[in-house]
Amino acid sequence: GNGQPLIHEGMFGMAFQPGSLNAFYVATEGGIYRTDAGGQVWFNLNQSLPIAQIDAVAVNPGSSTILAAGESNGLMSLSGELSTWTQLLRGNTGAVFFDPFQSGYLYGGQVAITPLRSTDGGATWNQKSSGISSTDPTGYDYYYAPYLADPNLAGNLLFGTTRVWRSTNQGTSWSAVSPQLATPGNNLTVIAVTPG
After folding, report:
1. Residue 142 pLDDT > 60, yes or no?
2. Do residues 26 and 11 make contact, with C-beta atoms less than 8 angstroms apart?
3. SS3 labels along 53-100
4. What is the C-alpha to C-alpha distance for residues 91 and 164, in angstroms, rounded to an integer?
5. Whole-prediction pTM
6. Torsion angle (degrees, nearest 10) of CA 168, 173, 177, 183
7. Per-residue pLDDT tens digits for 65-77
């Protein structure tokens, strides 16, 4: 189909297509879009997606599956070109990612301290917060926590509150790896790991 030159300006997340320098997806207030031309032309992937704000997007490195997470939509999955979006999780969902080492493992974060894991491609989900301090902030003063997989070490995940938490067993248990932020009321909003 024909693309369009512009997309919604309220952008919240981005995921690159593995193996391509010019193909990536963008999560926006107006849905989710794909470019194969480094942002020169965009394709709207919202045909069967119940539109609300999309906060995060992830691309499966081993298939064409895309995950989109957002306000009110929950977590949606799309496999193949312009097919039907499938709801995997209900409720406001922020961070979302595929396990880079374990096929079928998906992760998502919902409001407050709610790291979730699916071991069956998204059919079922379990909260995985054992060890994360219950005294760390929760509720709407801490909407979506940063949550990601370490691309260098299998099983390693990071989750942010007022400190960084690490799991070495795919979220089964967590331990703090940083001190708490010094200023009360501050929360981490981004965590990054350098690949390689």
Report:
1. no
2. yes
3. CEEEEEECCCCCCEEEEECCCEEEEECCCCCCCEEEECCCEEEEEECC
4. 25
5. 0.76
6. 150
7. 878 777 767 787 8
